[in-house]
Each structure stands twice: as structure tokens, then as C-alpha cells.
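Quick note —
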Amino acid sequence: MRDKAASASALLAQARLLLTIVRQHGASLAVNDRLDVALAAYADGVHLAAQSLPVADAVQLAGGHLLVGRSVHSLEEASEAAQAGADYVTFGHVFPTTTHPGLPPRGLAQLQEIVEKVDLPVLAIGGITVDNVEEVLATGCAGIAVISAILSTADPYAAAARLRRALDSSQHQPRTPWRQPPHATHHQPATV
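Predicted structure written out below.
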């Protein structure tokens, strides 16, 4: 869940609403950049950027109740996140993308290098579509994150379904599989 303009109270309300939906579908929810909101909502994770709290501090504050992820753009950043205790990293942008116009993509070779050298699940992001997802999964990454592949289409549901089918039919296995968030092991609020 990402909404950079929303207040903490608005994000908390959004997170609680989304959690009721994602849990009904066996899915998980990570809150972007707001550890306080993730903890207060009993979310499954928090996702950090370069300008966010340091990973080690977030891990300590989360106290094992949240997965802590970090966006990275190099092997060095991925290694630092792993050493600081991150549960996963998101690497990108792999291909050209409209969300980062003018910035050159980092490519599949750099993604594969990170997958091979960092013992964390690596999620790939940036320009990933149903047409190139198989190439991405061939690197051994643990999964993908997309924005435009779903939100820029006339039928987001159908686009998401096509991506899901492509993921499910892939023969490629992640080098480091995704681990389940700890939400099932900590206290949930009585009312959400």
C-alpha cells in the first residue's frame, strides 16, 4: 500500500480496510515507508526506500511482527540490506518504465547477479509485462512487482489475471523462495 500524500491516520484507515480484503483472499499487505502505520494496522510488512528508516532500525522496531523489505538498485545496496536484516529486496527497474522516464533500465543481468549473490528473496520491478515475465523469472527471482502492467490497461482485472497465469505456468523456481509473513503468529486487533 503506497500513498505518499496521505496522513498517518488516513493510511491507517486504508490499511485496515485493505487488510480485511487481502486476508479474505489469503494475500498479504505491506505498507510503503510507514513502519508506524504497518505496526498499528497489524500489516504483514513494511517496504522501505533509500530515504526511509535504516533497515536495521526498522527490523528492531518491528520486533519480528513484520517482514521488512527494501528497494535496491545495485548489488551493494542489496548486500547492505541483507546484512542489516531485511527479509526481502525489490530490485529495479529492470526494463524501461513510464514511472521512471529517462532513466536507463538496470537489466536482467544485474537482476540475476543480485539473485545469485544475495541470500534473500528478490522481487523484480520495472517494465515487467506478461510478454517478458518468463525472462524475469528465469533469473531465479522470487517474484515480481508491477504497476503499469495492470493499472495502465482498460481492464486491470484481466491484466492481473494474465500475469497470474503466466506466473503460475512458469517452470522457473526462485533461488531463494518467499517466506510467509508473521501475521499468523502475532495478535490481531479484535476489530478492524
